[in-house]
Amino acid sequence: MSSDVMSCENPFPFFQGNSLSDLFAQDIQADRHTLILNYPATASWAAYPNTQKYFLQDGSSEATKTSFDKICQKEPWKNLAVLGDTLSAVVIVPPQLLLVQYWREHFGFHNSHLEMLDCSTYLDDLNESPDRVITLFPFDRLLPEKHAINPDMHYHLLSKATLVELGVSCPGYQTYHLAQTSLDQIPLPPQFPYLIKTSHGLSGEGTYIIRNESDLNYCLEELRKYLKINLLETIIISEFVQHEVHNYCVQFYVNKQGRISLIGVTQQLVSSAGNYLGGLINYTDDLNQFSQMIEIVGQYAHQQGYFGVIGLDVLENRDGQLYAIDANFRINGSTPLCLQRHELLKLNKASAKYSSDYRMEGTIDTILTSLKPELERKDFLILSALEKVKYGKIHTEIYGIVTGATLEEMQQIEHRLHDKGLQLA
Hints:
Among the domains are: 31-148, no CATH class; 172-239, ATP-grasp fold, A domain (Dna Ligase, domain 1), CATH 3.30.1490.20; 347-424, Alpha-Beta Plaits. The chain is built from 13 helices and 17 strands. The protein has helices spanning 3-8, 20-24, 68-80, 97-107, 122-128, 151-158, 213-228, 291-303, 335-338, 341-346, 364-370, 372-376, 407-419; strands at 33-36, 88-91, 114-116, 132-134, 173-177, 194-198, 207-210, 234-239, 244-254, 260-270, 276-282, 308-317, 322-328, 351-361, 380-390, 393-404, 423-424. A hairpin with a 5-residue loop joins strand 9 and strand 10 (260-270).
């Protein structure tokens, strides 16, 4: 199909369900499948650290590694909220029953296939089970044949060095294997800014925007720390996309037959340091401008034997040129936001914002009570909530979605929620 045809009519249908179960249903009929909701980790608290083969960069020292509560509680629960009723899932720390009851009432799922496994034995338990396991990232200690996606291939797809193979427009970059080229021998671009990336950094970790000598020195220090703890083999030196006007995450699903269905496109919210904060969506947007990219990446993934969610991070510059800067072959941070499309459009809510940085004083119970009117109207959806105590005071950290008919209304609702105590951390 020519790009001219694609620009006026999207060749791919929008996915019609509202859960991860609905998404994966087409591919999990023949075998039993289980979804591991958490990422692997390399921290000392991990019962099964990924330090043998499938390295990931989740912090260069014990003090900076992604925390247990994020990897094993807040992040998995966000996906558990939209799991649906047919796909089985493993969670190694259970959410509060009040939160599960809220999900059942407001998302309409029963969570009947949720499996609680002990965090110190869960991979051994899964190795003994009859299920194929869908993962966000390959696990060293999960048998290769238990992975629903071949783990070597999945690891290759998840590498930032693979971007150039996909066949879509991306910034120019060079890949260096540190076993062959030492860090101090790598030729650096003559001018700032540029990017240095590790191959498998999580949630912005391992991506360094180099604007000056100070940034470069910090980055090299971090890379040396990763090398010292044997968690880094490959780095990428990339051009910096100038005059960026939009930062998108384009999400779609490719099934085992290679058919593509659209999930949605978000405008990504990113901190000045490049860390992911959430996303904005307009559910009436089509994905026409990305059709060619979607088709090329979907076909590539299918040829590699991949099925599942793909999130393509795309920058648009002021001239309207699109550059893919990352391809995430997994459920993405804003996938639950995209999955609200049909339910929220029924309520005439076309705009929504997802953030992983909300917090509110009090317990989950008090928050569910004080925000009851907003929750009933689906002005606010809670995907994840974890109570914390600081200086003897309880507050709750929330991953949530604010909604509205328009962007302006959604922002007004967020202000009202702020007046009731919902803060952006």
